[in-house]
Amino acid sequence: MRMLINVPETVVDDGLRGFAAAHPELTVDVENRIVLRRDAPVAGQVALVSGGGSGHEPLHAGFVGPGMLAGACAGAIFTSPVPDQMVRAAAAVDSGAGVLFVVKNYTGDVLNFDMAAELTEDEGIQVAKVLVDDDVAVTDSLYTAGRRGTGATLFVEKIAGAAAEAGAPLERVESIARRVNARSRSFGVALSACTTPAKGSPTFELPNGELELGIGIHGEPGRERRPMMTSGEIADFAVDAVLQDLRPKGPVLALVNGMGATPLLELYGFNAEVQRVLGERGVPVARTLVGNYVTSLDMAGCSVTLCEADEDLLRLWDAPVSTPALRWGR
Amino acid sequence: MRMLINVPETVVDDGLRGFAAAHPELTVDVENRIVLRRDAPVAGQVALVSGGGSGHEPLHAGFVGPGMLAGACAGAIFTSPVPDQMVRAAAAVDSGAGVLFVVKNYTGDVLNFDMAAELTEDEGIQVAKVLVDDDVAVTDSLYTAGRRGTGATLFVEKIAGAAAEAGAPLERVESIARRVNARSRSFGVALSACTTPAKGSPTFELPNGELELGIGIHGEPGRERRPMMTSGEIADFAVDAVLQDLRPKGPVLALVNGMGATPLLELYGFNAEVQRVLGERGVPVARTLVGNYVTSLDMAGCSVTLCEADEDLLRLWDAPVSTPALRWGR
């Protein structure tokens, strides 16, 4: 166990306290595990609220701020937040223009956001939901019916967040979010298992010298296990898995994502291979983002997410955003 | 070996190619391993050039852009770049206002930047140098005479970079850089060793359940090895080591830095403990930055860097910056 923690029981709250200290520009309610835009509710703006189990940082709290999420709820490690958190966050950020819940497709999250939507509507707040289910590795999984939600969550939150920031009404923000999800696909690879603080040992056995193709962000099993492959071979496999399902007819937005413990140098090297494969397959790349954004604690590995993005979506992608983990200007 | 690479020989060039693809806003000369501001030379501006061994990403290439570095040179893994790279970078970015070399205190880097400074001056370019030596863990080390240069490099590059961006002359940019270094101290801790691609196995033995206090960013030995400590105990030790040497009389700028493989959730939790210790010691914190900025490949661990920052330095810290790894606006 090589964890930088006090005791497993306080990991999430300790993290939120440290996050609050580093980000005075956000409102952090440690007790309720909610992070909010300080200026929320913003008059006339639809508010995006997301959330999920902890252990995927910077997702979601790191994406709260102008141009992206209005609020995020943190659950225990790899465990959905509860409806009460979502209702609270929605009530705090709703300006009257309504709230969009961005939900990764895991059974617990889906159930809790469904219940939260009902309770929030009972309070007279307009609610829409978008389910993110971009992972092509497997249909049905340890915690999911249907495809899992992974890297596309970042695309949905950024692009729909930009539409909300620009003043689009709830229906339009929701339809953009659905469009982004429908046009996005992901595939992930683990080079090592992750270790949850409570367990203190790897969540699954991955012998040194092997990798797991199609891994989920909680270490759920993927498609197959193989002897170690080169970065180029992994890129071939992952990009082809995504393209077989996505079949883009135009340029794509690419996220080359680290699972948490893969060095940035290696991740950039992997990006070179991803770009090579996309070039060979005749897929133009409009934008590329490389970094650790949708992680799985201390897992080594990576994922590729592609989104077929028209001019409209690219303009929203390029729009200013100001959050702890994603920030760019005019 | 759990590395996401092709072969050890191409890791640095693969990384630079992938970096170039992700950052079309920068000029990347993969052959010469140089990254430059696309708009360099910027008329009237002093240009900061840094560089060092690869394996510490995002340092240094990730800090190239308006408000920070004008150029960065990448060496092989944990190996200084050569003078020719530095001379080339300096010649490419000099506007006539001169160049400041930012040099981490390792024997190879110092020698090569010294030689590069002479060669660059021979070309009629004004050159100044600042040596970064903030690590209080040890004096003299495997690769260093005197203290090692670590986290304060980010402070020097950001703050002196802001002064250069604002049009300060070389003498003033240099004196600000020296002031930042003189007022900064760091201390690092390893929870695991790092693995260089060429070696393929950990660079040193750190048994599970032990940690190394005072680690260097290449895995150089620190002060002592101990059985695993809590995040709070590590914060006490690291912050006290820094404060004993720094003795700040005013507010500090804090960098809570990950070594590469420590999850962001844990790093934020560690920040909560760092803030607690600083509070207990009566040291006010003006700004905090948390993330993986000065890394050591796949090492798990963290470091704390504090800089005693007056209003002048804080204003420069807050000034806009637009680089891959550090970006904020007005």
UniProtKB/TrEMBL annotation, chains A, B:
Signal peptide extent: none
Entry GO MF terms: phosphoenolpyruvate-glycerone phosphotransferase activity
Record EC number: 2.7.1.121
Domain DhaK: 7-328
InterPro entries: DhaK_1, DhaK_dom, Dihydroxyacetone_Kinase
UniProtKB keywords: Kinase, Transferase
NCBIfam families: dhaK1
PANTHER family reported for this sequence: TRIOKINASE/FMN CYCLASE, TRIOKINASE_FMN CYCLASE
Name of the molecule in the record: Dihydroxyacetone kinase subunit DhaK
Species the sequence originates in: Streptomyces roseicoloratus
